[in-house]
Structure formats: structure tokens, C-alpha cells
Amino acid sequence: MNSDFYAAFVIGLMGAGHCLGMCGGVAAAITLGMPGNQTTRRWPYLLCYNTGRIVSYMIAGAIIGGAFAGMASFSGHAMALVSLRLVAALLMILLALYIGQWWSGVSKLEYAGKWLWRYVSPRAKSLLPLKSPLAALPFGALWGWLPCGLVYSTLSWSAVSGSAISGAAVMLAFGLGTLPAMLAVGTMAQQLQKLLRNLYFRRASALLLLIYGVHTGYIAIKQIM
Known about the structure:
Elements (H helix, E strand, L loop, with lengths): L2 H12 L1 H14 L9 H37 L3 H21 L14 H12 L10 H8 L5 H11 L4 H20 L2 H11 L2 H26 L1
Helix pairs in contact: 1-8, 1-10, 2-8, 3-6, 3-7, 3-8, 4-7, 4-10, 5-6, 7-8
């Protein structure tokens, strides 16, 4: 498997604290009102919600990956993708700084998608309260378009993946990385959040991403030169 997929998975896993802040409340809200609010009754709702969310990520990755691959093929300049990979490497470095809590500027990317969210948000909220687990599927699919700096940064890797299928695969890996935190409930959620928010754990993971970003950028610069 391409190392980009592993990197995308790590971004999703390490960025879970951010995901919990933006989507964790929604994941909790969809289970409210269920008889007894039993943990076993939550799973079908949470699984369908997160499946819908990840499918939206994959659709976005396929669109971005296919579009940029098509443009590079049409123009006959493969170097365009190499230049774009340099941009993706830079975003990876900025994302590593964010995860390591050294600099949070990458979160400003979320402003780029707020115009779309104004139209999507009312449709997502109109599906509440959810009457069945299957109803959580379209709800999650709509919520997957929530403006998120982590998602946008990872989409830059979909853009240089070379095809729609690879672009979707990168976002699938990212989505799977977010799953542990989004599916965790009760005591398990508290323990997982404690680990993911541990400063040493975050910075160790951020350093791995930083090294990968620098390495990728170095290779891209060599190809350009």
C-alpha cells in the first residue's frame, strides 16, 4: 500500500481530538432519546453515521483526485502533479505543527468551505431526530461535508494521488483513522481521548508526519529541478 495511505490514516487518528470537538457532539446527539440510551442500541446508529461520513470523504477524494489527474493528463504536463505534491507536502508539515500544538494556522482552511456548509447544514439538521439506524446514513453523508482543516489538508494528497480511485482510497484511510475516537463510548471514550490528547503522544506522532512531509517535499523539489 502507498505510504500516502498510511500517512492519511495517521492524520485521521492523531487529529481525532479535533474530530471529537467538531463531530463528537453530533455523534452523541444522534443516540439521544433512544429507550434506555443503551450502549448496544447506539452501535447501529454510530456505524451508519460514520459510514455515511466516510463515504462523503471518499466522494470528495475521488472528485479531487480524478479532476487533477485529468487536468495533468489533458495538459500533458505530469510536472503539474509534482508541483502540487510539493504543496501537499507543505500542508502535511503545517498539519504536523497543528497536531503537535506548535501552530494552529491550518485550522483557517475551514473558512474555505463555510459557503457550502450554509446550504448543507439545514438539510442535515432536518433529518433529526433519527428514526432508525439507516436514517443516520444520509445524515452522516451530509455531515461529512462539514468544513474541516484536517479533511482539506488530506484532500491535497488525494489531488496528487494520480486517479479518482487512489484519491478515494486516501480519504478512506483518513476516515478509518478517525473511527476509533468517533465510535468510542463511555469509559473507553474517556481513556481514548486521554491518550489522543496526551501532549507527548501527539508530538511524537506529529514528528513522524513532519518527517514524512519534509521527505516528500524534498523528493518533489528534486523532481522539479
